[in-house]
Amino acid sequence: MSRSILAGIRLPWNSLGLVAVLVLLVLFFSNQSEYFFSAVTFRTLANQIPTLTVIAVGMTYVLLIAGIDLSVGSVMALCAAVMGVLMADAGWPLLPAIAASLLTGLACGSASGLVSARWAIPSFVVTLGMLEIARGGAYLVTDSQTRYLGASVGRIGEPLAGLGVSPALLAALAVVAVAQFVLVRTVFGRYMVAIGSNEEAARLSGLNTVRWKALVFALAGLLAALGGVFQLGYLQTADPNAGIGLELSAIAAVVIGGTSLSGGRGSVVNTFLGVLIIAVMQTGLAQLGISEPGKRIITGVVIVAAVLFDQYREPLARRFSRWRLSSGARE
Amino acid sequence: MSADTSPLLQTRGLDKQFAAPVLRGVDFSLHRGEIHALMGSNGAGKSTLCNIIAGIHQPSSGSLLLEGSPYRPASIRDAEAAGVRMVMQELNLFPNLSIAENLCFNQLGNRFGCISRRTLKTNARTALARLKLDDLDPDLPVSALGVGKQQLVEIARVLAQPVKLLILDEPTAALTDPQIDQLFLQLDALRHSGVGIVYISHRMSEIQRVADRVSVLRDGVLVATETASNMHVDRLVHLMAGPAMMQIPASGAAPAPANQRAPEPAGEVALRVEGFGRERAFSDISLEVHRGEVLGIGGLIGAGRTELLRALFGADVADCGWLHLAADGFSRRHRFKTPAEAIAAGIGLVVEDRKAQGLLLDKSIAMNISLGRLPQLHNRLGVVDDEAITRHSELLCDQLEVKRDSIAQAVRQLSGGNQQKVLIARWLLQDLDVVLFDEPGRGVDARSKLRIQQLIRELAARGKAIVVVSSETEELLALSDRVLVLSNGRLAGEFDARTVTEETLLAASFRHYAQPGQNPAPGTETGT
């Protein structure tokens, strides 16, 4: 128990609430639509979520250090474009193309992170710039043409024989597990929490805050690239217009997962639950025949409600612990 | 001075208590057309008295009379309605609004909320002209001005409203000599128009120049009110220090061990500082700290002590001068650019503002203690060793007597004293050669304070070199072996803590404020 407490993350309490919401949603949609609780639905979900999952994991880290990364959608498109062009036009095999794609993402993230941390420019502005740069890069690389890759990348998104899940989903789950472990159990994780809680205190206790902040953005870029690889595997096309607005879906998932926008508090597992909630809602609402505008309005309400709930949870928890303390433990 | 017999302001038996009494039975009076200087060492109660007059605090008991009728402002607004205004030491301007907008902030628009640029500018010009600031363009944003000009705009803003009683808190700290002359001309004009002015300053030269009377506060008691022309530095220091030293600690706790302590054999030098300087903060600081020694740094608030510690630690970067450390055999000269560098070289700093700059308030005691030491408390993969953190934290909390439910408790829930202990524990865990303490006893209850003092002495006894900045003379003398005094950013003397008197320290504290034109030299040379 001391583990989760030390990292400042009350994991079970938060996660249980989100799991409850998720279960309620599944029950609701299963009740409303006879098609919802079926293999087809879950295969669709399993195909859709890997990209958003890994990108939201990177966003969790960024929000945890009280930053924001608006560029992940564009960076994802650029990385997928690089991969698509290398495979379709230059004839590269799959693995080197994936490596090139990941390096592209890492480079974009590092650039944003270094500029923002080194010169203390708000990450909002720097990543807004990167959003444009990467999108422009994606058009440039593809000559604004979508590349069709077909079966050569299909393996990434196809279910593995015997397991029933795709390599992409497995990789995304592995990313969630590793990222949660890093956050809760490693020095780097503690440093992110410290920087997000009080950056000046972290600096004065000897942290190289510039380096750690840059690293977080580099990771977010890398994970955006990974999301691009998954997207390519699923759609089998490299579209320079892919991922527009994806950064906002990622932020929504992170926020529904209870990570604080002001930094210092968050959980990767809860972000994953946030991704699932969004995905289930999207699919379920579609099956109920609710139009696209209606879906968006409902999603918007859920996001605001989640943050509202989060705002009130903190004072309530504090009042509770103060009440507990008033039994004389305090001076 | 006015011949009018009833004073403009009178206080009768004014008491104010926060945790401890801050003002005790203060009878203070101010006449129309008088400049009344208020002096005292750190924490004597000057600011509290002014805050009460300006409506920021309310007295615990006692009464105030303004022009003979009862005056009890519940807020700054009340005080301002009565014509009582205070110019704060911190600037209260909006940096991105223009000078004119700042000056007329309270009546920016007409009744439709529209701003007439012309009216605004005219009013601003009038206000600026009062301080002979005609050359300032009212359309300029305030952020384009230097600190001195901003201070003058702030004063102009206060004077743009009707004023009967004006309170100035160290108004000249950021001003150049010609600006000071300008200000004094204006104060003179105000005096002739019957305004009463309370003037807080350390600068004796200024007080002799402008003040009619001087009142001296000591430990919340108004000990003397005299004609300014009769007051000189020696007498002032004598009044502020009070009768013979050897005072019993106010807490009533065990007496501090300052004077009984056997003289420690001075160890080798651990830290040597040469020619340290930072613009607008301090200049030409050279000092040595020995192993096993506590070096105290005294001086008035604003003398540059915090800035010196921060620069030694790399929290701010010094403009000139070097550190040399025994840790590397004095083979290298250092000027740290980040705290990380300083810590790697064996220096730690317990910061003054622990809530804003020291602690992660919502995080656990254990996390706060281990924060600086994490690089050592993990395995090869970077996985944190929580067993070790728990063990170390528990041990340190027991040793420092941190009152807690568990080490998983959020630091926010601890008392000030226990928060301070947690912050100190962070550095104890690191085992550094040199530890700097900035106001270790601030906001700390009497018992914790004593424990922290003991702890600092223990650290010295274990061979650490310690530097302590404290505004409480009592604490400074209880802790230190030697005391350096900073005055207006420069060294003003070195004393043996066992023999020095409070009076001597005070005299040194005022030394570099005594002559005019001695604000810390701007533009000290960079590099060597």
Word description of this protein:
Chain A is mostly helical and 331 residues long. Chain A is built from 14 helices and two strands. Chain A has one domain (2-325): Orthogonal Bundle (ABC transporter involved in vitamin B12 uptake, BtuC), CATH 1.10.3470. In chain A, strands 1-2 form a two-stranded antiparallel ribbon. The radius of gyration of chain A is 20 Å and the shape is globular. Residues 1-11 and 327-331 of chain A have low confidence and may be disordered. Chain B is an alpha/beta fold. Chain B is 32% helix and 22% strand. In chain B, α8 packs across α17. The N and C termini of chain B lie far apart (53 Å). At the A-B interface, α1, α9, α10 and α14 of A face α10, α11, α12, α13 and α14 of B.
Which whole number gives the mean pLDDT of chain B? 85
How many DSSP-defined strands of chain A?
Answer: 2
What is the CATH H-level superfamily of the largest domain in chain B? Answer: P-loop containing nucleotide triphosphate hydrolases
Oligomeric assembly: heterodimer
- How are the strands of the largest sheet of chain B arranged? 7-8-9-4-10-11
Structural class call of chain B reads alpha/beta
* Approximate shape of chain B: globular
State the CATH topology of chain A. Answer: ABC transporter involved in vitamin B12 uptake, BtuC
Domain count of chain A, please report it: 1
Strand portion of chain B, in percent? Answer: 15-25%
Low-confidence stretches of chain A: 1-11, 327-331
Order of helices and strands of chain A: HHHHHHEHHHHHEHHH
Molecular shape of chain A: globular
CATH class of chain A: Mainly Alpha
